[in-house]
Amino acid sequence: MARSDGPGHQSFSGQNRPRFADVKSLLRRPVVHQAVDYAVGFALASAAVRSGDQAVMAIAAIAVIVSTAVFDGPLAAFRVFGTGAHRVVDVVLALAGAAVAVGADVGPATRITLLASAGVLTFMSVRFTHGIRETRT
Q1: I need a labelling partner for 136 at 20 to 30 A (CA). Which of 49, 58, 62, 92 fits?
Q2: C-alpha distances in angstroms, 43 versus 28, 75, 86, 112, 118?
Q3: pTM here?
């Protein structure tokens, strides 16, 4: 049976078709990296309000937000240090969050939130151009 070109059918031809490479190039931009870091920080702050371990979550939120605010990027508030230092700080924050989640006496919701945040920070720092290493696919 032949395909219909009616409503609901999208035909991408030439330069108008979406490509995975375009998404990867978008994720390589520092503004996206900073936006994700801010989102992680504010998600931790939001979780701190409802958490039984408010101090742990608040410290994690402040650390992520401050490290993002002083990074030399388009969404930075202060532009104190460059991308190389920010990459290292992101990985160190992720390792510290994972260590606290595993080693400290915190509740299960706090543990899951810290591990998820650590995973996102590590993924953004290591996987894309703003990371410690760039992988080729």
Answers
A1: 92
A2: 22, 17, 20, 13, 12
A3: 0.73
pLDDT of 72: 82
Residue keyed to tokens 């402040």? 62
What is d(CA 128, CA 8) in angstroms, rounded to the nearest whole number? 34
CA distance 27 to 6: 33
User: Which band of pLDDT confidence, cut at 50, 70 and 90, is reported for residue 103?
Assistant: very high
Query: Which residues, 6 or more positions from 121, have their beta carbon under 8 angstroms from its beta carbon?
Result: 37, 40, 64, 90, 91, 93, 94, 97
Q: Would you state the torsion angle of the CA atoms of residues 117, 128, 77, 82, taken in this order, to the nearest 10 degrees?
A: 120
Token duo for residue 71:
């990074």
Percent of the chain as helix, strand, coil, to the nearest 5: 65, 0, 35
Distance CA 64, CA 44 (A): 9
